């Protein structure tokens, strides 16, 4: 950390310290290090010894500040209506970014160690910084509290009757990530079992992917034992690595998540955080891949930033939402400043907006990167029950539950968490493409052909770095919302054009104004074989 540290969110200035002559801090002479009784600290707080260098002083000052000046205090008896969470997105992100600096410093101690280092002192230094991150994260993020007994959030020495009713810390969850590992996580419930079966079969038997797969759910009520057994059977037929199941509620308490009854899309960031994989490819069950998902791991954006995000349609305009976003991001990153969703565009010239920035059908994050991991906490917080519900009530639909009438799912919470926590991220260019079937343009303003999907839920497609189709959402069936919908192989795609919503009576999404491309013979064959397998699975279901 720099010798001069300015805590802009805290309004605290730490003066210049000469680390060569700095004396250890005496807690009795420094009011910031006055030790409180354990009962007065927030959940999960373990008071560290007095720091003896600048990085430890900064970390301790930071955590003390979080404790002394909480962003908000939820009302008693579990009520949440009085807390205006939507006002704290930016401040929550700035505090999270400062914690990420502390974690980065802690991890740099091991990477920069040499044979001449005092290993014991170095390990103690790192342990104190990690504890500070745990303390700070517990103060900022209530979903880390009250972890189940078997949760990797708990240290192995935690007692089952731990009176703190909380977890030991984020560092223990981080230690559960398998170094260098990568895998696919698919959130699956009883309602999207059909799509999940199609996806798993296509990944294994058609595309030949060998990446390990975790199926994430929120207990038996979300994905029944019979349906888990069904997925295991169809997966075993392809003879790949075994299928794993991840019950997110064995890692996090449902007290602030409400995933059992009203989770829907909200489970996704918690599944990514809970997964044992260090690099996670999070995939919606209705995703259709035209290339092996292994290609995502080689993508330049993931290599550079540790993140790979895809864009939504550049379509809807919501002035209220745009104004709120800008109020929370006083210093937008270059990635956001250059975004057409931030500045406006020919496709949406009336108001600058950010409501259609992200498509969360596929999200790839490398959790070994400290700032990415800390930003993921912010995304999870956005999808916790009181926050997502309040945003829906306020009409700020960026992360509203899909169960609400105005629900926008989790899609915007990914880039927003990364942006607010100061993490580097990249999003694809151009905005989402369209895969479907060519139709003649009916409107005079839409000269030429257009490409349309068979429903408004299908056909949002994404390209790889070379401009080839990589994946699209909406499932293999012509209409994912109809149980008996038939199948038809798409024949065309278009990118970089203008979207048309409700173009015809059956309300498809269409794209016009750009070159139309035909799917290659290989792409059509992948879809043909996947659909053939899907029909067989439908018979079993």
What layout of secondary structure does this protein have?
Layout: E1 5-7, E2 12-14, H1 54-68, H2 89-111, H3 119-140, H4 170-175, E3 178-187, H5 193-206, E4 213-217, H6 225-236, E5 243-247, H7 259-262, H8 267-274, E6 277-283, E7 288-289, H9 294-297, H10 300-305, E8 307-311, H11 319-328, H12 334-337, H13 340-343, E9 358-366, H14 370-382, H15 385-394, H16 413-420, E10 433-440, E11 449-452, E12 460-463, E13 469-472, E14 492-494, E15 498-501, E16 509-512, E17 516-518, H17 521-540
Parallel strand pairs: 3-4, 3-6, 4-5
Antiparallel strand pairs: 1-2, 6-9, 7-13, 8-9, 10-11, 10-12, 10-14, 11-16, 12-13, 14-17, 15-16
Helix pairs in contact: 1-2, 1-3, 2-3, 2-14, 5-6, 5-17, 8-14, 14-16
Description:
It is a single-pass type II membrane protein. It comes from Coniella lustricola. This is Mannosyltransferase putative-domain-containing protein. Residues 155-164 have a biased composition (Basic and acidic residues). This protein has 541 residues and is α+β, with helices and mostly antiparallel strands. It folds into three domains: 5-140, no CATH class; 171-420, Spore Coat Polysaccharide Biosynthesis Protein SpsA, Chain A (Alpha-Beta Complex), CATH 3.90.550; 433-540, no CATH class. 34% of the residues lie in helices and 15% in strands. It contains 17 helices and 17 strands. Strands 7, 10, 11, 12, 13, 14, 15, 16 and 17 form a nine-stranded antiparallel sheet that branches. The protein has a six-stranded mixed sheet with strand order 5-4-3-6-9-8, with helices on both faces. A two-stranded antiparallel ribbon has the order 1-2. Helix 5 (193-206) links the parallel strand 3 and strand 4. The longest helix is centred in the N-terminal third of the chain and has 23 residues, at 89-111. The relative contact order is 0.10.
């Amino acid at each position: 950390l720099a010798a001069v540290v300015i805590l802009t969110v805290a309004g605290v200035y730490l003066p210049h310290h000469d680390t060569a002559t700095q004396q250890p801090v005496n807690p009795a002479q420094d009011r910031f290090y006055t030790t409180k009784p354990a009962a007065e600290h927030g959940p999960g707080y373990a008071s560290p010894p007095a720091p003896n260098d600048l990085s430890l002083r900064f970390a301790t000052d930071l955590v003390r500040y979080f404790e002394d000046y909480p962003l908000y205090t939820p009302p008693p008896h579990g009520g949440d209506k009085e807390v205006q969470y939507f006002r704290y997105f930016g401040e929550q992100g700035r505090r999270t970014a400062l914690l990420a600096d502390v974690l980065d410093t802690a991890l740099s101690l091991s990477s920069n160690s040499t044979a001449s280092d005092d290993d014991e002192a170095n390990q103690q230094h790192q342990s104190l910084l990690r504890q500070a991150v745990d303390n700070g994260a517990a103060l900022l993020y209530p979903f880390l509290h009250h972890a189940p007994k078997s949760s990797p959030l708990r240290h192995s020495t935690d007692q089952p009757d731990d009176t703190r009713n909380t977890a030991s810390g984020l560092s223990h969850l981080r230690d559960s990530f398998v170094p260098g590992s990568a895998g696919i996580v698919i959130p699956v419930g009883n309602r999207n079992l059909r799509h999940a079966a199609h996806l798993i079969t296509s990944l294994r038997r058609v595309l030949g992917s060998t990446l390990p797969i975790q199926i994430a759910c929120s207990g038996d009520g979300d994905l029944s034992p019979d349906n888990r057994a069904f997925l295991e059977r169809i997966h075993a037929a392809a003879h790949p690595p075994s299928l794993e199941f991840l019950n997110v509620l064995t890692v996090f308490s449902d007290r602030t998540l409400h995933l059992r009854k009203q989770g829907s899309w909200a489970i996704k960031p918690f599944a990514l955080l809970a997964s044992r994989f260090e690099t996670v490819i999070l995939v919606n069950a209705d995703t259709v891949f035209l290339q092996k998902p292994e290609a995502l791991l080689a993508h330049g954006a993931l290599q550079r930033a540790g993140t790979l995000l895809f864009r939504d349609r550049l379509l809807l305009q919501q002035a209220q939402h745009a104004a709120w976003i800008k109020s929370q991001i006083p210093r937008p990153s270059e990635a956001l400043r250059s975004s057409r969703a931030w500045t406006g565009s020919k496709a949406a010239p009336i108001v600058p907006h950010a409501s259609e920035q992200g498509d969360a059908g596929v999200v790839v994050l490398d959790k070994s990167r400290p700032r990415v991991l800390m930003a993921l906490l912010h995304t999870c917080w956005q999808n916790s029950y009181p926050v997502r519900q309040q945003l829906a009530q306020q009409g700020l639909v960026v992360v509203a539950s899909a169960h609400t009438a105005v629900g926008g799912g989790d899609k915007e919470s990914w880039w927003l968490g990364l942006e607010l926590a100061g993490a580097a991220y990249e999003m694809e260019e151009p905005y989402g493409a369209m895969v479907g079937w060519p139709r003649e343009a009916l409107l005079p303003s839409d000269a030429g052909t257009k490409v349309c999907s068979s429903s408004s839920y299908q056909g949002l497609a994404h390209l790889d770095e070379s401009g080839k189709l990589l994946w699209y959402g909406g499932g293999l069936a012509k209409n994912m919302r109809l149980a008996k919908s038939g199948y038809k192989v798409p024949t065309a795609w278009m990118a970089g054009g203008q979207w048309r919503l409700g173009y015809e009576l059956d309300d498809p999404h269409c794209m016009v104004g750009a070159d139309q491309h035909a799917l290659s013979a290989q792409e059509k064959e992948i879809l043909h074989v996947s659909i053939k397998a899907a029909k067989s699975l439908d018979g079993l279901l």
